[in-house]
Amino acid sequence: MNHNTPLSPRPLSHLAETHRRVLTTAQLRAHGVSAAETTERCRAGGPWQQYLPGVFLLHPGPPTSEERLHAVLMYATRGSTPQPAPGVPAQPTARQPRRPAPADVMITGLAALTLHGFAAAPALPALAKIDVLVPRPRRLRSAGCARVLRAAEPPAPEVVTGLPVAPVPRALADAVAGLRDAAVVQRLLTEAVRGGHCEPAAVVRELSEQRLLNRPHVVDAVDSLLAEGRSIAEERLYRMVAEHGLPDPVWNVDLRLPGGPHLGGLDAYWPDEAVALELDTRAPRQNDDALWTEYARKRELLERLGITVVHVTPKKLRDAPAQQATVVRTALMAATDRDPAVYVVVLPH
């Protein structure tokens, strides 16, 4: 058989692009290639190869990293109906190739972190396995380089280099689930926050949902992550005050009633206006309810004493610092219209 002879009225010579050098059995059949012809072309020394069950490479050499990713996605979506995810055009364009996966199938784990640009994640060629996240009911087993992970409710994927990729918090959780090296886990979690990929609370929430917070090396990494996240949030707070022309507060203080009880610690306090600011860096761990109760108790007590409390989250400081500066400025300006607050003692925290 001459392997250069077209196999059908619809020859495959136009399938030179990377995402068309990887095809499923159904796609080959749609191009007029029978199962027997596919088997013949995939024989030893032939021009094609079966890379995963039902997924074929239309060349004999090793796959590129991009071909591996497309192959894994195609394997995970066999028999499912592709549906474009939000932001992915229904028709392919020169810059956005056709995405071969429905909106509930996506690359996750270390491969996803590499696609998100994590320096601490291995290069794609170094990964023996590529994790792919699918809905729990789907009947699919891991095969070859494709490691199948399941989610009761898959997150909305992000499109990276034209491929559906799990958001960073979910990708991190799936990666951490398979890692035992504490140093690697800590590097990945730290880069997620320091690199601005996501907030610590989102990471801890996903780790908690995946029941990974009972592993000592993960707990240690999370403690470092939360400390790193608070430090970054404090830097953003200092920058917000300076860049938006707010009056300088006293930083990191405790408030007490004269000769009375401790009222609580604050990240910033404007004594003349009796305006307090607190960074809400809570993470959804087991003591989250207790922390929220403490936040609420402190706020209620301070406001009863005539002190305005502004709560700011790290995410809002990152995404909308000008808006948060306006909230603080409004609270400072409103001080002249309020009754004077009870006198409190301000102490270094």
Supply the key terms.
single chain; five-stranded mixed β-sheet; 13 strands
Entry summary:
With 349 residues, the protein is of the alpha+beta class.
Write the layout of secondary structure elements.
Elements: E1 22-24, H1 25-30, H2 35-41, E2 49-52, E3 55-57, H3 65-76, E4 106-108, H4 109-115, E5 130-135, E6 146-151, E7 158-160, E8 163-165, H5 168-177, H6 182-194, H7 200-209, H8 216-243, E9 250-256, E10 262-270, E11 275-279, H9 288-304, E12 308-312, H10 314-319, H11 321-333, E13 345-348
Parallel strand pairs: 5-6, 11-12
Antiparallel strand pairs: 1-3, 2-3, 4-5, 7-8, 9-10, 9-13, 10-11
Helix pairs in contact: 4-5, 5-6, 5-7, 6-8, 8-11
Notes on the structure:
The chain has 11 helices and 13 strands. It is of the alpha+beta class. It has 2 domains: 18-178, no CATH class; 239-348, Endonuclease, Chain A, CATH 3.40.960. The strands form 4 sheets. A 5-stranded mixed β-sheet has the order 12-11-10-9-13, sandwiched between helices. Strands 1-3-2 form a 3-stranded antiparallel β-sheet. A 3-stranded mixed β-sheet has the order 4-5-6. Helix 5 runs antiparallel to helix 6. It starts with 21 loop residues before the first strand and ends with a strand.
